[in-house]
Backbone:
């Protein structure tokens, strides 16, 4: 069945309920007879107090009221109604034609006024005008409800920003944030810009432009098809979830629609791939590829801030004999156990990596040569005193080097390697350091 098209100048007016407030019996009867022919339901009241009660009980669509009435005048009633409903169209019929009346009418937001004696044709034009306004408003509200319905059934998290202000959040987003409705969220003290984080965990409220606009940061992020992280609450202990953010804009209306797609599974897959790509599968330590990046980052930081940076190179003594005598499975067990012992006895901020074969490297920021020599000596002693299943006792040799002002990665690692070679040629199971 085709949708019935209603227009404000005919059919729509016949669907409305009108409240007519008039204390003059003759005018009351005459206008009521006229109005009943053009509207669906006509409510009547003889004074402002009765009209206010009728409004509260029946919720009419349009009000027509006289001004001068007993008990409560029309403007007083209008003010009370405006306190309850700012949008309902109100037509005033009045014999007054002075400045004070017009100023009060403007203040109260009266939509139309008709001078007495009331000409039905003029009243009908005023009524049709108000009905048209009401019709357009309801059409817009219906369109908005449809748009919100479409937004709410989307699985992605959506938000609409109008001229820099939050206008709408769809139901999926509200569910994520832990709110039942948009009103509940807006009435809370939660600031959305504090819950949208960059990859490094910085809220957009901190990343905003000098005017404090977090929207510009979000636009820049979405424009680059980047990832943001969302927290369900503003509590720091709640884990943030990664979302890909995109947007569509209506520049002429200054409206932006942002869409957030949960990419947790993609991030997990990415982390797993990175773990596989940069982790030594046998020992669980960093592999050499990852170590190159770590060394580059830490060396640049140490150069920039003139901070100490030291490394240890470790080699398992006579490891070839372990493989030859006990087999490669026993050799793998030795590598795993040595890695476990070293990882348990260095700082959390130190990085342990398998350099290759039976060699390991430890990168230690903010540690000087003497401290690292003591660390290496501690590790040497622990390994030498630890029994290895099926193999017995083992020892390791260590070479230690500290960053110099003009060092490259190659310079630093070559000095540590020379120190390790000195430890090997000096009898093994010892620590040497490069000056």
Residues:
């Amino acid at each position: 069945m085709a949708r019935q098209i209603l227009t404000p100048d005919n059919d729509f007016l016949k669907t409305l309920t009108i409240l007519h407030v008039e204390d003059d019996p003759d005018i009351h009867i005459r206008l009521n007879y006229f109005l009943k022919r053009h509207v669906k339901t006509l409510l009547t009241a003889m004074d402002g107090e009765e009209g206010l009660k009728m409004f509260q009980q029946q919720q009419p669509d349009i009000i027509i009221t006289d001004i001068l009435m007993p008990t409560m005048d029309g403007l007083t009633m209008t003010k009370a109604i405006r306190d309850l409903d700012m949008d309902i169209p109100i037509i005033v019929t009045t014999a007054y034609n002075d400045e004070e009346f017009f100023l009060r009418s403007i203040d109260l937001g009266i939509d139309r006024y008709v001078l007495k004696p009331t000409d039905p044709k003029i009243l009908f034009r005023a009524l049709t005008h108000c009905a048209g306004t009401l019709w357009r408003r309801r059409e817009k509200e219906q369109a908005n409800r449809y748009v919100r319905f479409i937004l709410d059934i989307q699985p992605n998290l959506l938000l609409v920003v109008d001229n820099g202000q939050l206008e709408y959040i769809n139901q999926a987003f509200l569910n994520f944030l832990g709110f039942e409705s948009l009103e509940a969220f807006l009435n809370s003290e939660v600031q959305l810009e504090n819950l949208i984080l960059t990859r490094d965990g910085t809220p957009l409220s901190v990343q905003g432009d000098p005017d404090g606009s977090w929207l510009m940061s979000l636009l820049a992020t979405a424009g680059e098809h980047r990832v943001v992280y969302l927290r369900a609450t503003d509590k720091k202990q709640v884990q943030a979830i990664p979302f890909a953010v995109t947007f569509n804009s209506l520049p002429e209306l200054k409206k932006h629609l942002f869409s957030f797609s949960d990419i947790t599974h993609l991030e997990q897959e990415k982390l797993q791939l990175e773990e596989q790509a940069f982790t030594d599968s046998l020992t669980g330590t960093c592999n050499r590829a990852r170590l190159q990046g770590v060394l580059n980052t830490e060396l640049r930081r140490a150069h920039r801030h003139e901070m100490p940076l030291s490394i240890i190179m470790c080699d398992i003594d006579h490891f070839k004999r372990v493989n030859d005598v006990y087999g490669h499975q026993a050799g793998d067990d030795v590598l795993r156990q040595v890695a476990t012992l070293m990882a348990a006895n260095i700082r959390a901020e130190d990085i342990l990596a398998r350099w290759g074969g039976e060699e390991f490297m430890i990168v230690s920021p903010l540690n000087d040569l003497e401290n690292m020599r003591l660390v290496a000596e501690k590790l040497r002693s622990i390994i030498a005193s630890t029994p290895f299943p099926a193999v017995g006792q083992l020892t390791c040799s260590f070479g230690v080097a500290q960053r110099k002002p003009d060092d490259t990665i190659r310079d630093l690692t070559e000095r540590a390697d020379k120190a390790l070679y000195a430890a090997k040629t000096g009898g093994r199971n010892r620590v040497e350091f490069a000056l």
User: Anything to note?
Assistant: The chain has 15 helices and 16 strands. Residues 120-152 form the longest helix (33 residues). Residues 154-266 form a domain with the Beta-Lactamase fold (CATH 3.30.450.20).
